[in-house]
């Protein structure tokens, strides 16, 4: 246990949040007063590679373990929030083509939300992991005023995930595909150099946000352009995968190559937020992902650069906030728990 407050016992009814990842599940408990009973990562193996049956059993195990850890009787649990990596429908049916984490044929079109609901005998609400992180950022930032506020979150990782929250609710869309911010195409003028090739995304689009603002974008599009312009750079001797991962460390040391690459990423996210400003005119723009774990001066520079390249009207500038998404490793489970709490509150 990490400290006296690491685990609490509930003082009211609760909801449980379960975050399903490629290797681990992370679990949390949120009580009706909005208090988390766990302030650290509580993980178990997710066994998604063993197929749906094992994975649902692992989620049930995570659920039982977190109740035991927090000394929460099962009778106090009103609902469960579950998040997984996408793509999946708004109701938690994994894409019929599978995905990186759910590659086995038995996963294709599998209703993970329904299966967990049947296994636990409790209502389960579903979000994709980026939407869960967006919802957590929103609730943490606005607290009791969450239901009256709107926000947009961009989470930079291997890809670019995100979420759109309006009046405290995640916008999921007709097919569950709203908030796929990585695949929004942006104006490239002012983002790319004049002689820079158009960046390609794995989704097939040219010049969308993920093709620039993601680890994949660094590897496939940005480093191949920038590295030959810095032939003596130590990263020029590294394989491209490794170079892409090491780049952030150079950014923290204000290395010109790294700043050129991350500067382009920040401009791309600024372009995305400019589009968001004209769509939902949110109260807050959140930025998350690996950059949040970087040295404070570097992440602040990155956030400032995003802000500089987000074109807001004067009224919007006065009304909107820019902030980093905190506690990213717990954001999925916590966001899923918030969604579960909201689902109970409206009943
Ligand atoms: Zn794309």
- In the predicted model, the low-confidence regions spanning at least 5 consecutive residues are none
What is bound: which ligands?
Answer: zinc ion
**What is the makeup of the main sheet?**
5 strands, mixed
Specify the number of helices.
9
Beginning-to-end CA distance, first to last residue: 36 Å
Radius of gyration computed on alpha carbons: 20 Å
Instruction: Report strand order across the widest sheet.
Output: 3-2-1-4-5
Question: Hey, roughly how much beta strand do the residues contain?
Answer: 15-25%
**Rounded mean pLDDT score:** 93
Shape: globular
Measured as a percent range, the helix fraction is 25-40%
Briefly note the structural class of the backbone. alpha/beta
The number of strands is 10
Order of helices and strands: EEEHEHEHEEEHHHEHHEH
Tell me what you see in this structure.
The protein is of the alpha/beta class and 347 residues long. The chain is built from nine helices and ten strands. The strands form two sheets. It has a five-stranded mixed sheet. The radius of gyration is 20 Å and the shape is globular. The model has no long low-confidence stretch (mean pLDDT 93). Zinc ion binds next to loops.
Write the layout of secondary structure elements.
Blueprint: E1 14-20, E2 24-31, E3 43-45, H1 52-69, E4 77-84, H2 112-120, E5 124-128, H3 129-142, E6 151-156, E7 160-166, E8 169-170, H4 215-226, H5 240-252, H6 256-279, E9 284-289, H7 296-308, H8 314-319, E10 321-324, H9 328-345
The site of zinc ion has 7 residues, from loops.
